[in-house]
Specification:
Length: 321
């Protein structure tokens, strides 16, 4: 019997519905359940063929557990090694290379020195930074947000230089991005599952959180096709099995605003019934597919094109999904 485990935190509607949906399909030799951990011993298999990770971004213990599970044969969705290495600034850099339009973005050193560092720790950092060059490149209005993480935490909209200096002083040891504001005509949030299934959802980020999926945008068939191609290109490059991409449409051009969301919101109360049904059904079918393909003792992770190309260019064999 191959087990599909769901690792989750406070959310309830999606994990429970996903478990129920997988089991309701009655696929021979496959069952789903919440992950149960009573001990983690080095090099010991987890007992799961597939683990869907919804919480390790907030719980370091779980992230390490998942790495051990992956090393011993579990297909972990999403790849915990890549998730640990990824960040939003790198994402933008990679998108520039693969030709996806993104806002002009710079990364900033933390306002406060990291713990256990001194001024001498920053011998290679110019002081002051080239603030005029940074501001001229990004422009205002702009957004400032952490270079890693999600959930709209510590996000600031800045209208001018004075507001930047005021708000940057509040960010402590956080490493921040300063990013051009894309003033959009339409906005979409897009699920991508298995680097092949795409759900494009009208989304209004300026609404209160519980109303953001109540948006009246109506894309043309041409725009839908263009957005789907961009979503797939992003996820092929990054290698995420379960992700959301946010696209802002300015002058007919889709700009990728936020596209590293490997544990995206999938609660029924926020995404709405139709989107909830799509993500439950699609995730269930994909988890079963991965369980059927899983091979004991082998690497069953998904690796993005960036990593695979880097590995093969250095003479290493191409492995993984």
């Amino acid at each position: 019997m191959k087990k599909i485990g769901i690792l989750f935190g406070q959310e309830r509607s999606f994990p429970m519905a996903l478990i129920e949906r997988i089991n309701s399909k009655g696929v021979e030799g496959i069952t789903a359940e919440p992950v149960r951990i009573d001990k983690v011993m080095q090099g010991e298999p987890s007992g799961y063929a597939v683990i869907i990770d919804r919480i390790s971004q907030d719980v370091p213990f779980y992230r390490t557990y998942l790495k051990n599970a992956a090393m011993t044969g579990a297909a972990v969705i999403n790849n915990p090694f890549w998730w640990s290495a990824d960040d939003k600034f790198f994402n933008n850099c990679l998108m520039v290379q693969v030709g996806v339009p993104v806002p002009k973005t710079v990364i900033l050193p933390s306002y406060e020195m990291p713990t256990d560092t001194k001024s001498e720790s920053f011998s290679n950092l110019a002081y002051p930074l080239d603030w005029p060059g940074i501001f001229n490149y990004v422009g205002f209005p702009a957004y400032m947000k952490p270079y890693a993480g999600g959930g709209w935490k510590n996000v600031y909209k800045l209208n001018n230089i004075e507001e930047f200096y005021e708000k940057h002083s509040e960010t402590g040891q956080l490493v921040m991005l300063l990013q051009e504001e894309i003033i959009f005509e339409e906005y979409y949030r897009c699920y991508c599952i298995g680097c092949k299934h795409v759900r494009i959802m009208p989304y209004e980020p300026r609404n209160p959180h519980h109303l953001r999926y109540q948006a009246a945008f109506s894309p043309s068939q041409e725009l839908l096709k263009q957005m789907e191609e961009i979503v797939l290109r992003i996820n092929h490059a990054l290698g995420y099995d379960f992700n959301t991409v946010e696209l802002a449409i300015r002058d007919g051009v889709p700009y990728a605003i936020d596209f590293g969301n490997p544990a995206p919101d999938a609660e029924r109360s926020s995404v709405g019934e139709d989107n909830f049904e799509w993500v439950v059904e699609t995730a269930a079918n994909y988890a079963i597919e991965r369980a059927q393909a899983q091979l004991e003792g082998q690497d069953n992770l998904t690796w993005g094109e960036y990593v695979k190309k880097s590995a093969t260019s250095n003479g290493l064999p191409d492995s993984g999904v």
